[in-house]
Amino acid sequence: MATQHFSSGLPVPAVSPAYPMAKPGYGKRSAPDQQPRTRDNFALLPTRERYVAGFVDHLPDGAAMSVKQLAKQLPLYGQQAISTALNALSVAGHLRRVRCPVGAGDETRWVFRTFWSRTARDNEWWTTYLATETAAQTAAPVATTAPPPPWAPAEEALPTRPEAPPSAEQPPAPAPVPPQRTPHQAPAAESAPPAQPTREAAPTPAYLALARLGRDDHRLALSAHDCTALEPLAAQWLDRGVTTDYLTSTLTAGLPAQVDSPVGLLRRRLTDKLPPHLPTTTSTPPDAPTPTRRLLVECTDCGRPGQPEALPDGLCHPCHQTHTAHDNTTPPDPTQIAAVKAHMANLRNLLKPV
Questions:
Q1: Could you give the CA distance from residue 77 to residue 56 in angstroms, rounded to a whole number?
Q2: In the chain, what's the furthest Cα-to-Cα distance?
Q3: Between vectors from CA 239 to CA 233 and to CA 245, what angle results, nearest 5°?
Q4: Among the listed residues 31, 67, 12, 4, the one whose alpha carbon sits nearest the alpha carbon of residue 295
Q5: Alpha helices for 8-118 (secondary structure H)
Q6: How do residues 187-229 score in pLDDT, each as one tens digit?
Q7: pTM (two decimals)
Q8: Distance, CA of 295 to CA of 131 (rounded, Å)
């Protein structure tokens, strides 16, 4: 049972303005419906845990919550002491470490967060909260409209001319004045428009891949005419989902010591080694429901992931047993201490030389 500490204990250190923030999507996350911040929020905790909890509570959302970063800002305790304090805060119901998937398809990655609650919560509250807090809700960026740059004039500041009603009579527009010709200007210069320079089309990726073969290996040096002739064959490779690096490695693999006709060799390889065409449609039916992604809670001590209900107090089963065994340790009996001392004294007497 927790005992209230009436001593002021260690003062909460001030958060440095240069405290490192975690990467976007990581770091501290505040739980909802917390009590207001007072001096007695963590009065039931021991001195070390109260000191660490007061510092973490003043950190902004998104701050780095690793043991190494916290130990750098709290010089009174080392990393091992900070890790033990975080375990105690997890058991007390103030924090949970979670991991959640972000992204879709092949770009899915895991982000690690620490949910913090100034108000101590029980396991049922954390299980319900983490079960309903999906990764999409916590990682979805808020759509914000970027403000206009300071040098851009505001739309309201632009003078606007009131439009005349359709029924109002508009004055006739003046006739356009033909351009005047200067005396020294030749008539031929007016009739002949200036010639526009022709602009060449940008080379395609297939053309660039063929053109770079000669720079990678001098045996496959091609002319501009050869690249244009082989471009349709190389484009078929890229249309089938092949990258330019794969195309280059296939064309340059296993070359003979001397290549007499680079264009003939490449035409043969582009034709014979054409990759198969893979369909782009997936086997998943379009009406299939999107699987729900739940947050995985991490063990605060060893980092083992699991469902919220499988990690009571934020600890896995082995770490929970170790933590409970440490908490339930009782002081030894004085009679046992006296018996051990007497036994050691007897051993010392037996070891004395006669």
A1: 14
A2: 138
A3: 80
A4: 31
A5: 47-57, 67-73, 79-92
A6: 544 454 555 444 457 889 999 999 989 888 888 989 999 999 9
A7: 0.47
A8: 7
